[in-house]
């Protein structure tokens, strides 16, 4: 079993829909990252969370440390949001850049 | 501001050849890492560094070598390429601050094929 599990693996949505991507992990962590990767492209950091909730534009990320679960929400989705969304965790006591990654959620937003 | 620069973007090698993937960042970040990305698998850490002169192994270090002689550069060396090393490689950097906001900066990736 992977230490970081994402669901769903694939998601197709219509433009304007509210989208939720989930990340569950089995290790104690000090931080969790959400990343975005466009097809054939590089990787962009969206959020780092250690507690609570963060918002940036139409993106909202939440984390529940006790339940070992995080969600990434996209409001009013747009075709340009189509990408792979990756969750990564920093285990407690590990180096800041020693991360464990999920396999990603492939999101397709159709116009 | 260039950010994290990786070269080359594409490379084809024959089994047994050696090569170096270059990674440079101009943000004065202490932390740098190398990952490989394979289909159906998450990014996996190869080697990482927490500062100049300090490197450590990640999850999949075999067949790779790194050094960190300067803050800016973190090259990844493939000693004797094998087909199993066919992958997309990403370099990443992040700052070390007392109130680290955790930004991660990735290079654009290097696609390596070993025949």
Q: What would your notes on this structure say?
A:
- The complex is a heterodimer of chains A (111) and B (115).
- In chain A, the strands form 2 sheets. In chain A, strands 2, 4, 5, 9, 10 and 11 form a 6-stranded mixed beta sheet that branches. Chain A has a 5-stranded antiparallel beta sheet with strand order 1-3-8-7-6, with no helix packed on it.
- Chain A has no helices and 11 strands.
- Chain A is globular, with a radius of gyration of 13 Å.
- With 111 residues, chain A is mainly beta.
- Chain B is an all-beta fold and 115 residues long.
- Chain B is globular and about 40 Å long.
- In chain B, strand 4 and strand 5 form a beta hairpin.
- In chain B, the strands form 2 sheets. In chain B, strands 2, 4, 5, 6, 9, 10 and 11 form a 7-stranded mixed beta sheet that branches. A 4-stranded antiparallel beta sheet of chain B has the order 1-3-8-7, with no helix packed on it.
- Chain B is built from no helices and 11 strands.
- In chain B, 0% of the residues lie in helices and 48% in strands.
- At the A-B interface, strand 4, strand 5 and strand 10 of A face strand 4, strand 5, strand 9 and strand 10 of B.
């Amino acid at each position: 079993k992977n230490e970081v599990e994402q669901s769903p693996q694939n998601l197709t949505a219509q433009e304007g829909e509210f989208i939720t991507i989930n990340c569950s992990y089995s290790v104690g962590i000090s931080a969790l990252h959400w990343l975005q990767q466009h097809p054939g492209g590089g990787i962009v950091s969206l959020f780092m969370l250690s507690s609570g909730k963060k918002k940036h534009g139409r993106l909202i990320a939440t984390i529940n440390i006790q339940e070992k679960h995080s969600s990434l929400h996209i409001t009013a989705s747009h075709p340009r949001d189509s990408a792979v969304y990756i969750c990564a965790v920093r285990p407690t006591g590990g180096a800041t850049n020693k991360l464990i990654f999920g396999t990603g959620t492939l999101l397709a937003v159709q116009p | 501001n260039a950010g994290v620069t990786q070269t080359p973007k594409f490379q084809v090698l024959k089994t047994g050849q050696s090569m170096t993937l270059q990674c440079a960042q101009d943000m004065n970040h202490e932390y740098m890492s190398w990952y490989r990305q394979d289909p159906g698998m998450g990014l996996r850490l190869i080697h990482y560094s927490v500062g100049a002169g300090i490197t450590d192994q990640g999850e999949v270090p075999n067949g790779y070598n790194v050094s960190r002689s300067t803050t800016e550069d973190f090259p990844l060396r493939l000693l004797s390429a094998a087909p199993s090393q066919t992958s997309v490689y990403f370099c990443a950097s992040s700052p070390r601050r007392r109130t680290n906001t955790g930004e991660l900066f990735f290079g654009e990736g290097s696609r390596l094929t070993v025949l």
